[in-house]
């Protein structure tokens, strides 16, 4: 059976692979949305922190003999701790200034982080083995799906939905949202707003580190692995609506699928289709699909 001249198995396999890419887009754009929506900071260092998560996992497994599952937990914690240091020593002084200052600072941090890893490991990628528990593949009939890629989709969806639930449906999330709009009022209720802001930034960048560990067995671990991806992820955030948690999740998954479909019908356009969608959305709805019009 063909769909517009493309065999159905080929179509389904590309959709599934697109969903895998969409999972990374959703995870990274979620971290950006959390940081921008709650802190009003455009975190351009997100791609470098994604790369740091992958490298820390690789270093823990290579030099310390730790396994994948330990590093899946430990690497995001270490990246989050690094993010907390950045927030407490640098970003904290920029909250009342224009967004451009935060963007320039995080861009500078990106260059420094990438430069440090490049000086030690060059630009060639480091191999990262798939954990033994997730090795092999499953025959779905229309394609053979690597078990690890299925794990990536499930893990990404679980973390994204859990994050959305905490921010939108719990008391902690209400404190976070209120703290960004009226910090003095929230402090009057005994909430330590500066600590809450710091931990929010740490959690947002930890999501990038978690995505980096998930991506490491799929792509080679390289100091530049986040450079191209972050541009696409920023486009995802803009399309979904700056600061929209659910918008980032749904848009990331949808654009991964759209990218997969484009590879079937027009492979040359797969690298730019996200930006074409962004232009169309900005023309029709400047605040993004799920953003709030001011």
Automatic annotation (TrEMBL):
Assigned keywords, A-Z: Amino-acid transport, Cell membrane, Membrane, Transmembrane, Transmembrane helix, Transport
BP GO annotations: amino acid transport
One Pfam family here: BPD_transp_2
UniProt-listed InterPro entries: ABC_transp_permease (IPR001851), BCAA_transport_permease (IPR052157)
Parts of the chain that traverse the membrane: 15-39, 69-87, 99-121, 148-167, 188-219, 231-258, 265-284
Record-level GO cellular component terms: plasma membrane
Membrane topology recorded in Swiss-Prot or TrEMBL: Multi-pass membrane protein
Localisation per UniProt entry: Cell membrane
GO molecular function, one term: transmembrane transporter activity
Family from the record: Belongs to the binding-protein-dependent transport system permease family. LivHM subfamily.
Name this polypeptide is given: Branched-chain amino acid ABC transporter permease
Source organism per UniProt: Rugamonas fusca
Higher taxonomy: Bacteria, Pseudomonadati, Pseudomonadota, Betaproteobacteria, Burkholderiales
């Amino acid at each position: 059976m063909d769909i517009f001249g493309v065999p159905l198995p080929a179509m389904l396999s590309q959709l599934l692979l697109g969903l895998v890419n969409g999972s990374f887009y959703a995870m990274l754009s979620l971290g950006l949305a959390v940081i921008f929506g709650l802190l009003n900071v455009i975190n351009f260092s997100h791609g470098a922190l994604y790369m740091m998560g992958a490298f820390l996992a690789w270093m823990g497994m290579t030099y310390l003999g730790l396994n994948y599952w330990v590093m899946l937990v430990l690497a995001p914690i270490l990246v989050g701790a690094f993010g907390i240091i950045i927030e407490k020593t640098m970003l904290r002084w920029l909250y009342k200034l224009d967004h451009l200052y935060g963007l320039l600072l995080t861009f500078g941090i990106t260059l420094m982080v990438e430069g440090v890893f490049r000086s030690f490991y060059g630009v060639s990628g480091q191999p990262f083995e798939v954990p033994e528990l997730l090795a092999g593949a499953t025959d779905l009939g229309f394609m053979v799906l690597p078990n690890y890629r299925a794990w990536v989709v499930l893990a990404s969806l679980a973390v994204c939905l859990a994050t959305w639930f905490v921010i939108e449906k719990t008391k902690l999330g209400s404190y976070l949202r209120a703290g960004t709009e009226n910090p003095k009022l929230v402090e009057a209720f005994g909430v330590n707003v500066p600590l809450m802001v710091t931990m929010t930034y740490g959690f947002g960048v930890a999501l990038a580190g978690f995505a980096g560990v998930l991506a490491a067995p799929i792509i080679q671990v390289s100091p530049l692995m986040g450079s191209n991806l972050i541009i696409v992820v920023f486009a995802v955030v803009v399309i979904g609506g700056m600061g929209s948690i659910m918008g980032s999740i749904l848009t990331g998954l949808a654009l991964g699928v759209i990218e997969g479909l484009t590879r079937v019908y027009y492979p040359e356009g797969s690298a730019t289709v996200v930006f074409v969608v962004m232009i169309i959305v900005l023309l029709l709805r400047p605040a993004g699909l799920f953003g709030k019009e001011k």
